[in-house]
Design a protein that fits this description.
Radius of gyration: 16 Å
Helix content: 25-40%
Distance between the termini: 53 Å
Order of helices and strands: EHEEEHEEEHEEH
Length: about 160
């Protein structure tokens, strides 16, 4: 395969089905890259001493996809050697231990893909309109991302 055949690609998906780490990581594999870096955000069973039953996610889907595309463009400007980027986020109910978000990035060397993955998750949490509801044993709470720019602008 000629490297010109392996053009950089972005894979973005918001879906209600269970996310697969294998599926997402395989999307970014390239024979020209020696690194695939992953971030997997999972549902934990507790928050501030409360027992979490599950999470629920909602999104303004078209805007969320547009914002994720911007993140991918930013990654390519900051780290030009990045080959492929995959950002998958689950919507709806996410049980304990299951993935809410999977981000995968490939690059020739590890430093760029590791930095790009960190940038992706931090920027996603700060700018993408996806909302999380934590369901506890006897109550629930919509969670505000502390990084979220629109939450900070109202205070």
């Amino acid at each position: 395969m000629d490297e010109s055949e392996d053009v950089p690609k972005d894979f973005i998906e918001l879906k209600s089905a269970k996310l697969s780490v294998d599926e997402v990581s395989e999307l970014v594999v390239s024979p020209y890259c020696g690194a695939v870096s992953l971030f997997i955000g999972t549902t934990r069973n507790n928050f501030e001493g409360k027992k979490v039953i599950h999470l629920e996610y909602e999104a303004y889907t078209s805007m969320a996809e547009t914002e994720i595309k911007k993140i991918c463009r930013d990654v390519r400007q900051k780290w030009p050697s990045v080959k492929h980027i995959a950002v998958y986020h689950r919507l709806g109910v996410v049980p304990i231990t299951e993935a809410s978000v999977i981000i995968a990035v490939s690059s020739p060397h590890r430093a760029e893909s590791l930095e790009a993955v960190k940038y992706c998750i931090n920027t996603l949490k700060a700018s993408v309109p996806i909302w999380k509801k934590e369901i506890y044993e006897d109550e629930y709470s919509w969670k505000e991302n502390k990084e979220c720019f629109w939450a900070n602008s109202e205070k």
